[in-house]
Write a structure and sequence with these properties.
The protein is mainly alpha-helical. The chain contains 10 helices and no strands. Belongs to the mitochondrial carrier (TC 2.A.29) family.
Length: 283
């Protein structure tokens, strides 16, 4: 049943977000604030001034919604792949073989379907992670309320185009690299084991974030532009201004951190998803 894919995606998404949120907070600050001299300096300053709580800012809202986003993404991917391959099984072990083009297309479709939910959620997360004191936003609900008051409903979708460009390509690569690596690490005729799943999931996360980071930087800066950050007139203006002031290297801010964070997060996400699917279909 397609419903099971959505349930498994929901649970695995929440688990993965819990693992990776502290490093995601550091990444957002490095990308949007120039006061930090590097990764260790950002970690040190955050801990010194805000304690451990500082690394978990903005987590409640995405934690409650990460399940929904992952549910939509994994469920849409599975459904699209079934349609493209002519398969009627949501059980991965019974699905007909898919070409690389089918997998990439289904992955990109998954990236597209989750955007309506992920854009406002990601905006709130970035705004909360980007503030270094509690003066501006007191929490997720207050943040949403302030955005609606000052920027209107459209304010919740700021940076949405950049996020869409990021996710359409990176989700396609995400699922494609996972399937290819997992297949390469699994003996023919056998189901993938824990090592294969976690390695493939981790590497898929690293590869997709390597592709996504340049547009992720642009997205984060656009999202912060009405919250004390630099104001930009769209994606191209943000890119031009950022390169002029900081050089081309600006688009790779946080890429190392994204990679470090991506491996364990996506290893756990895929392992949770695959194990849940196996459990559901064994009952």
């Amino acid at each position: 049943m397609p419903f099971l894919d959505f349930v498994a995606g929901c649970i695995s998404g929440a688990v993965g977000l819990t693992v990776g949120h502290p490093l995601d907070t550091v990444k957002v600050r490095l990308q949007t604030q120039s006061v930090y001299q590097g990764l260790l300096h950002c970690v040190s300053e955050t801990y010194t001034h805000e304690g451990l709580h500082g690394f978990f800012k903005g987590m409640t809202f995405p934690l409650l919604s990460a399940g929904l986003i992952n549910s939509i993404a994994f469920g849409s991917y599975s459904t699209a792949l079934d349609l493209l391959t002519g398969s009627r099984h949501s059980d991965p072990s019974q699905r007909k073989p898919a070409s690389a083009a089918h997998v990439f297309t289904a992955g990109s479709f998954a990236g597209l379907t989750q955007l309506s939910v992920s854009i406002p959620i990601d905006l709130v997360k970035v705004r909360l992670q980007g503030q270094t004191s509690a003066d501006q936003y007191r929490g997720s609900v207050h943040c949403v309320d302030e955005i609606l008051k000052k920027e209107g409903p459209r304010g919740l979708f700021k940076g949405g185009t950049a996020l869409a460009i990021r996710d359409l390509l990176s989700y396609g690569l995400y699922f494609l690299s996972y399937e290819l690596i997992c297949e390469a690490l699994t003996e023919a005729g056998k189901e993938p084991g824990m090592f294969s799943i976690m390695t493939a999931g981790g590497l898929a996360g690293v590869l997709s974030w390597a592709l996504a980071t340049p547009m992720d930087v642009v997205k984060a800066r656009l999202q912060m532009s009405e919250a004390g950050g630099r104001t930009y007139n769209g994606i191209l203006d943000c890119m031009r201004t950022s390169v002029k002031e900081e050089g081309v290297r600006v688009f790779f801010k946080g890429v190392a951190l994204n990679s470090v964070r991506a491996f364990p997060v996506n290893a756990i996400t895929f392992l949770s998803y695959e194990r849940l699917m196996k459990l559901f279909h064994s009952g």
